[in-house]
Design brief:
There is one protein chain. The chain is of the alpha+beta class. It is built from 15 helices and 18 strands. Strands 3, 4, 5, 6, 11, 12, 13, 14, 15 and 16 form a ten-stranded mixed beta sheet that branches. Bound molecules: flavin-adenine dinucleotide (FAD). The site of flavin-adenine dinucleotide (FAD) has 39 residues, from helix 2, strand 2, strand 8 and strand 16.
Amino acid sequence: MTSHAGRTAGPSGSSGPSARPSAGPFAGTGQLNGVRRTVELDALAEDPRVDLLVIGGGVTGVGVALDAAARGLRTVLVEARDLAFGTSRWSSKLVHGGLRYLASGRVKVARESAVERDVLMTRTAPHLIRALPQLVPLLPDLLRPGQASLIRAGFHAGDALRLSAGTPGALLPRVRRIDAARTRQLVPGVRTAGLRGALVAHDGQLVDDARLVVALARTAAQYGASVLTRVRAESVTGTSARLVDALSGQTLTVTAGAVVNATGVWAGEVDTSIKLRPSRGTHLLVDAATLGYPVAALTVPVPGSTSRFVFALPQQLGRVAIGLTDEDAPGPIPDEPQPTEAELTFLLDTVNAALATALTRADVRGAYAGLRPLIDTGGGSTADISREHAVLESPSGMITVVGGKLTTYRRMAEDAVDAAVRLRGLPARTCWTARLPLVGAPGHRDSRPAPAGGVPASLLARHGGVAHEVLAAGELSPLAEGLDVTRAEVAYAVTHEGALDVADVLDRRTRIGLVAEDAERARKAVEEIIAETVAE
Ligand SMILES: Cc1cc2nc3c(=O)[nH]c(=O)nc-3n(C[C@H](O)[C@H](O)[C@H](O)COP(=O)(O)OP(=O)(O)OC[C@H]3O[C@@H](n4cnc5c(N)ncnc54)[C@H](O)[C@@H]3O)c2cc1C
């Protein structure tokens, strides 16, 4: 990228429809890599006028970029660090139907969640999501009198939402009660003394949240968006921003028909008129073996609360994530929020009440925390702040989209692009992302049936219909003994998924980095594969 500090041009929207971005050899492909990044930065330096500039490469920003590009807008997304660097990789990875919001009477946000869950699980990303049984064990000393009836009523209300969203029972089975033997089959670590069975409801679970972000970014790129990581937006207005390339240090001023700020908890740094009240949510990780390899989520009521639960969620790579907390997190926004000792103790104490053998600190293999970008509505607990999203226009004309959740990213993106089109008169078609399969989904043009024989199920779960491309990228052998990630996946992360360095691979394309010891075991192999792949 050459330096073009101070160079400006009129918004493309004001001088008629602009040219499609010239991605050169990558036009029409969903490949993201260092070469494409350079080609597209150079093209942007040549013609720094775009219809829409999106700031932030979390789920919201990549969703906005896909929505805009699919509507025919010349779209550029800049991400200061890496795809899914922020909150989008620290979630519980649930594609949920909004049951929790029903409990607090927020029917609109609950229904929106159920509808978006249906879109994700039936059309846009079914390859990344499975139906997860969520089980509340009927242990009399765990539940207050009447609590089981309340939970059952809530589960049935959630089922009504599922039906109203059109999600078939074959995909998300309806609520039922199971006996103690079946409960132990699903969650072998559950306490058996006094166990009278369990109530079971189903929700969607992503194989990984960061992989949804990458699939969205690649699909946006396929529709012509430039997705540029390691590029920070500074001095942002409603129609321009100075972009700083962290790799070269060079700068470029871009002018845009509209600018969408999708920087999550950092939104108030990009636009000072935005006031947020971040809330920290923490998970800890244990080996699945310590709970007997559960296949369902164990749901444990938080003592003294009617609506809060701690979940033990089976994950890829042989782990169970136990979460989560909801704590006020005032002050400067850290790059990587850290869990507190008090949160870890709270999670262990709560889940232990439902386990046959209590977990100790020695069982904890890793822990992570994320900040929810909640809109500041004044006093009260962060748990009570609405998870609805907002699209806000600042005095400078910048459009900020914030709040919401992973599950509803598509609707947030649609609302943000609708606002940009309406306020700035951009030449765009109507939104059609509800019908647009992401890279790897059935129906996507690059998807193929699962390759026959010998391909790890975990690779298929992470890559879906493009597993054949992964196989062509490298060897199927594991990165390190006992690690369920192949060498081919690392090579593919570099050639197709925009990974630029070891941390991108360990912490976001794969989630090996969630357990520090695993990351150290894999690091050398990842370094070697990156070096070989880049040299080819
Ligand atoms: C603990 C926890 C659990 C959750 N669980 C769930 C769940 O199970 N299901 C669900 O649906 N939702 C869940 N959520 C909510 C969901 O994770 C978030 O709402 C969502 O990920 C927010 O995404 P975002 O893109 O808005 O923000 P982010 O993912 O934070 O993305 C913002 C990006 O902007 C970039 N950026 C910042 N400043 C700049 C700049 N100046 N220039 C360029 N880039 C910049 C950052 O690097 C970052 O990558 C959970 C949230 C938390 C905290």
